[in-house]
Amino acid sequence: MLFPSYFKTLVGKEVVVELKNDLAISGTLHSVDQFLNVKLTNTKVVNESKYPHMMSVRNCFIRGSVVRYIQLPASAVDVEILHDATRREARAGFQKEGGRYPSL
Amino acid sequence: MMEEVPLPGTALADELDKKLLIQLRDGRKIIGFLRSFDQFANLVIDEARERLIVGEQYCDCPLGIQLIRGENVVLLGEIDLEKELPEGLTAVSEHEIKTAIRAEKEMNRMKATIRQRMDFLDLE
């Protein structure tokens, strides 16, 4: 459960979620779940004119399976903590409840 | 960092009975009220309509109650009720929008054929 736990530490940060259909949405990370479904608030589509239907949407839920990238602010990322967490998970064999994602 | 992760069930519970815009993997946009969901993001949408947009024209085609299989869902957006009707777009009837869609498809097909022919010339 490495990455869902990691994203929980990023709640409140500004992120840009790029989807597999090339849609990119910036917003504040509101919540994440074990499938890496993401909820964003205060959303703004990056290429707004190309997606007029999104103009009236301010909060959205994004299914984890359609995400290509989640762009994080560099200042919010502590690489050392990630390294340590990954080493711990690797030692535990990535075994955890809901082991659908054995190695993210 | 190994703390409690939000329970999978809660994600969409806040969106129940809200007017949502659902984008599907095939590019369709469905608008309606979320009545039910499950862990796969299968959705039951009430008063559903498909919003078709061509250029500056749009049309909401009514669909009734829909069950959408979760694997097709891209995103669910909460619609700001004040800004719901898209600005800069004119409402047209179902018949007009379907004609516009056919015209656009025809144009895209022609453009593709022209491009194919131009590529062929470039090879020489």
Automatic annotation (TrEMBL), chain A:
<dbReference type="GO" id="GO:1990726">
    <property type="term" value="C:Lsm1-7-Pat1 complex"/>
</dbReference>
<dbReference type="InterPro" id="IPR016654">
    <property type="entry name" value="U6_snRNA_Lsm2"/>
</dbReference>
<keyword id="KW-0507">mRNA processing</keyword>
<dbReference type="InterPro" id="IPR001163">
    <property type="entry name" value="Sm_dom_euk/arc"/>
</dbReference>
<dbReference type="GO" id="GO:0000398">
    <property type="term" value="P:mRNA splicing, via spliceosome"/>
</dbReference>
<keyword id="KW-0747">Spliceosome</keyword>
<keyword id="KW-0539">Nucleus</keyword>
<dbReference type="InterPro" id="IPR010920">
    <property type="entry name" value="LSM_dom_sf"/>
</dbReference>
<dbReference type="GO" id="GO:0046540">
    <property type="term" value="C:U4/U6 x U5 tri-snRNP complex"/>
</dbReference>
<dbReference type="GO" id="GO:0005688">
    <property type="term" value="C:U6 snRNP"/>
</dbReference>
<comment type="similarity">
    <text>Belongs to the snRNP Sm proteins family.</text>
</comment>
<dbReference type="GO" id="GO:0000932">
    <property type="term" value="C:P-body"/>
</dbReference>
<dbReference type="GO" id="GO:0003723">
    <property type="term" value="F:RNA binding"/>
</dbReference>
<dbReference type="Pfam" id="PF01423">
    <property type="entry name" value="LSM"/>
</dbReference>
<comment type="function">
    <text>Component of LSM protein complexes, which are involved in RNA processing.</text>
</comment>
<keyword id="KW-0694">RNA-binding</keyword>
<protein>
    <recommendedName>
        <fullName>Sm-like protein LSM2</fullName>
    </recommendedName>
</protein>
<dbReference type="GO" id="GO:0071013">
    <property type="term" value="C:catalytic step 2 spliceosome"/>
</dbReference>
<feature type="domain" description="Sm">
    <location>
        <begin position="2"/>
        <end position="76"/>
    </location>
</feature>
<dbReference type="InterPro" id="IPR047575">
    <property type="entry name" value="Sm"/>
</dbReference>
<dbReference type="GO" id="GO:0071011">
    <property type="term" value="C:precatalytic spliceosome"/>
</dbReference>
<keyword id="KW-0508">mRNA splicing</keyword>
Automatic annotation (TrEMBL), chain B:
<dbReference type="Pfam" id="PF01423">
    <property type="entry name" value="LSM"/>
</dbReference>
<dbReference type="InterPro" id="IPR047575">
    <property type="entry name" value="Sm"/>
</dbReference>
<keyword id="KW-0694">RNA-binding</keyword>
<dbReference type="GO" id="GO:0000290">
    <property type="term" value="P:deadenylation-dependent decapping of nuclear-transcribed mRNA"/>
</dbReference>
<feature type="domain" description="Sm">
    <location>
        <begin position="7"/>
        <end position="82"/>
    </location>
</feature>
<keyword id="KW-0687">Ribonucleoprotein</keyword>
<dbReference type="InterPro" id="IPR010920">
    <property type="entry name" value="LSM_dom_sf"/>
</dbReference>
<comment type="similarity">
    <text>Belongs to the snRNP Sm proteins family.</text>
</comment>
<dbReference type="GO" id="GO:1990726">
    <property type="term" value="C:Lsm1-7-Pat1 complex"/>
</dbReference>
<dbReference type="GO" id="GO:0042538">
    <property type="term" value="P:hyperosmotic salinity response"/>
</dbReference>
<dbReference type="InterPro" id="IPR044642">
    <property type="entry name" value="PTHR15588"/>
</dbReference>
<dbReference type="GO" id="GO:0006397">
    <property type="term" value="P:mRNA processing"/>
</dbReference>
<dbReference type="GO" id="GO:1990904">
    <property type="term" value="C:ribonucleoprotein complex"/>
</dbReference>
<dbReference type="GO" id="GO:0003729">
    <property type="term" value="F:mRNA binding"/>
</dbReference>
<dbReference type="InterPro" id="IPR001163">
    <property type="entry name" value="Sm_dom_euk/arc"/>
</dbReference>
<dbReference type="InterPro" id="IPR034104">
    <property type="entry name" value="Lsm1"/>
</dbReference>
<keyword id="KW-0963">Cytoplasm</keyword>
<dbReference type="GO" id="GO:0009631">
    <property type="term" value="P:cold acclimation"/>
</dbReference>
<protein>
    <recommendedName>
        <fullName>U6 snRNA-associated Sm-like protein LSm1</fullName>
    </recommendedName>
</protein>
<dbReference type="GO" id="GO:0000932">
    <property type="term" value="C:P-body"/>
</dbReference>
<comment type="function">
    <text>Component of the cytoplasmic LSM1-LSM7 complex which is involved in mRNA degradation by promoting decapping and leading to accurate 5'-3' mRNA decay. LSM1A and LSM1B are essential for the formation of the cytoplasmic LSM1-LSM7 complex which regulates developmental gene expression by the decapping of specific development-related transcripts. Required for P-body formation during heat stress.</text>
</comment>
<keyword id="KW-0507">mRNA processing</keyword>
